[in-house]
Amino acid sequence: MEESSSFPNMNTEIQPEDSSVEISDSHSVNEAHEIAELQQSILEAQYFDASSMAPLSAASVAALTRLRAYKPPPFDSVWNRLPLSRRAAVLVLLFADRKGDLRVVVTMRANTLRNFSGHAAFPGGKADTLEETPFEIARREASEEIGLPRDDSKIPAPFKIEHLCQLPFSLARTALAVRPCVAFLHANKTTTASGRAASVEEDMMPRLDAREVAAVFSAPFHNFLKMDDEVRKEDEGRLPGKKSDWYKGAWLQWLETSWRMHNFYVPITNQKVSKPKVREGGQAAIAESLEEEEEAGLTRYKIWGMTARMLVDAARIAYGEEPEFEHNTHVGDEDLIAKLQEMGLLEEKVPGKKDLSDEDINTARVKLKDGKFGGKI
Fold it and tell me: Into how many domains does the chain fold?
């Protein structure tokens, strides 16, 4: 079951040498303005792929521009009404590879983390105080889990992190409202203090310490819209297995609603995977299990569940494209979360007290007007 697209057409070809945009009757004024802004951004972009000193690809510049401009639905009231025990955020951290294409940082969770150990996930977690913003939560958790400094002044020169946007809330199985916070890690100049070309892949990624996770790796961002591995000509034959090993998906019926389950298999043989420098308890168990599997022939890490869904939605927003595979068209669960709040089902968590049930979620979904339970891009 493939649902119709809610996207404007953002695939219009952009010619850097042409500063004008021809508006046909089929384009809305908003679309024309958006295309013009993307053209101007490409003309003015001064970002560099740090490892090769080459400019970001035009597709990457346009993707970052769309993310900067993106505004989630005006659901501040949802966040403000959430009790502390229901608030969470994750960091969707992007960086450019040597060819100027965007990649995203992902972790493998350790047994020491209570929920979803052994699963691929973004750095993130629950709020510590009601005063923390989603980005502050995401940055604090990224510091604790992977060693990414939460204080921008402590990020090694010449690198910096730009906060791009926040995506609509998703409802976790643990009854948390999770806010994805998208950021871009890049070099604000092209060389290090030693005069060598600065490289996010070579200088920053190895510094990330899997402090509370079993592994830190990265995945090609645009590929989360594709059925197969996207392989450059120079990389032909370097990736493990077949191109079609990248994606598997299926429709599942849950609470009388069809949900698309995405499973992505990210190659790890073509990148440096950061493992814990000091290993303790469950973290050591997962890290050692991964290494044993890799020695036995494991060449890809699996990304699925809420993390996979967030990646698909983030890529849809960034690139202005619909995926090649079938998918749910709504983004996030803000309408559903608001309805659950209205029903008094997202109060402060109480130890020992029964939490949100599938029946509660189904009741809220049924009560939503027009059957809507998520936002649109």
Answer: 1
